[in-house]
Amino acid sequence: MVELGTPLRWWSSVSERGRYVHMVVVGPRKSGKSAFFERLAERGDVILWDVRRVARAQSTRAVWADLFAALGIDAAGERPIEDLEDHLDTLARGPVLVVDHWDEAVDGRERQVPDHCYEVLDELSRFCLGQAMTRPAGEACLGIALLTSLPAPSDLEFFTRAVHRTTFERLSKLITRLFVTEPFPALDKEDGERLLVAEGVPAASAGEVADACGGWLWLLLEAADAVRDHGAWTAGAVEQVRDRRLPALLDASVVKWLVERPQVVGPPMDYLAQELAAGRLPAELGVPHAFDDPRRAAPLIRQLLTKTFLVVDTENIWAPFHRHAEVEPERYPDGVEKSVGAWVGEWVRRLCKYHDVAVEDVWLIGRSPGKIDAIVGPDTPGERFGLSKPLKDKAKGRDGSDDNLLTAKVTQQAVRNPFASFVLATEDGDSSHVLEIIGLLDQVVVCTPWRSSKRLRELMADPARLREFTFPKGRPREVSNAEIDAARARRAGRA
């Protein structure tokens, strides 16, 4: 991989603070930590120790022996700390030991892990911290850096609390209280572009691709793969990275740790969206930031979190056809339910395509799931939401409870995900007026099946947020209650 300047500048800065390094390095998976320190180890700048291979060692002697082999010290005797001191006395400059995959090696939450690795890491950490007192100025000291896949500094404390283990408690207190927590840096834009070009992305488009991804190495490499697959940074390449690969990357690197945070009580992705919308720095959540503004998440992250929901008022679309069929049933030879169901199904699919809504993000609102199926047909995509019993009781003899449910669902999701947007498929403007009052109307586009009311047109002043005549079938003529009563009387008389 191409030589990258961002981590080199970071390491030069952190390694020159104080007499020796004693730190925990955090950053999401695949941000380049291990690869960077492997290169430093090849150059002799650090000693890399993959502690996973002794995580389940059956004796402390075996752990010390593996460590001493990495440090180039003869096999550990009965007093390994004294042997380590003697080794340092022979050196003009103390080495930096980089303990790779530290969090994986000590993670005993869902598996049985022997205590021996904990004991050695505890003793080694105490020795490292105590050198400031025990080794005179000018003598070589052992530096230590613990590499983790924890996304952000705050996750270190959550992780150590979650590992309920007596032998780990001593070590965790040392790490969280006395070690310095250093976030591994995201790449800057120059490094991002250089990496992309080295991975085969044309130089002319490397800047655009880097801007979309931010400085997360894993995401940049996925973007380079997509460019190779599609021949350029096309809409298809963007979709491949954002919609197919990015969710899996976040699950593996960020979401798995967010669930450890006690304040996360719902879906972690909703928490991520809420915190970013509230002004939390992306780096504090373990996600890449935009190159031009460290306060904003990278564009692909924001786009992923900006989900669009299609909310369909099924009763509203059903009512005019139902009334018309009472008077002119011959206009619906296959029955009004079958005819309307076919039209609504086509309408929902058109709206999904136009507004780029995933089928799992379609909400069909009505009196009951059974009634919704009767209106839209069982094959129309979307989750069915019917009225609760209290709302049904309240709705007897009146309209509007399904509007209340629609408004409540939109409000609930907007609180969970402040980046969400909503397409309301309805002829009724009541929900839009309520959403304006509570400050959510700027997240809404209204698609009316036919001509909208003057009141709704005035409310949705921006023409981009009001689409009219979206239904595939024209609106049936208005029929009066008197016409319906007369038609029913005629049918009763024939019976």
Q: How would you characterize this protein structure?
A:
It is a single chain. The protein is an alpha/beta fold. The chain folds into three domains: 5-183, Rossmann fold; 189-305, no CATH class; 308-481, Rossmann fold (3-Layer(aba) Sandwich), CATH 3.40.50. It is built from 23 helices and 13 strands. The strands form three sheets. A six-stranded parallel beta sheet has the order 10-9-8-11-12-13, with helices on both faces. Strands 2-3-4-1-5 form a five-stranded parallel beta sheet, with helices on both faces. A two-stranded antiparallel sheet has the order 6-7. Strand 12 (444-447), helix 22 (454-459) and strand 13 form a beta-alpha-beta unit. Helix 12 crosses helix 15 and helix 16 packs across helix 23 (481-494). The model has no long low-confidence stretch (mean pLDDT 86).
Mean pLDDT: 86
Query: In the CATH classification, which architecture of the largest domain applies?
Result: 3-Layer(aba) Sandwich
Biggest sheet, in brief?
Answer: 6 strands, parallel
Low-confidence spans: pLDDT under 50, at least 5 residues?
none
Strand order of the largest sheet: 10-9-8-11-12-13
What is the number of E strands? 13
Oligomer: single chain
User: What is the top-level CATH class of the largest domain?
Assistant: Alpha Beta
Percent of residues in beta strands?
Answer: 5-15%
What is the third-level CATH name, the topology of the largest domain?
Rossmann fold
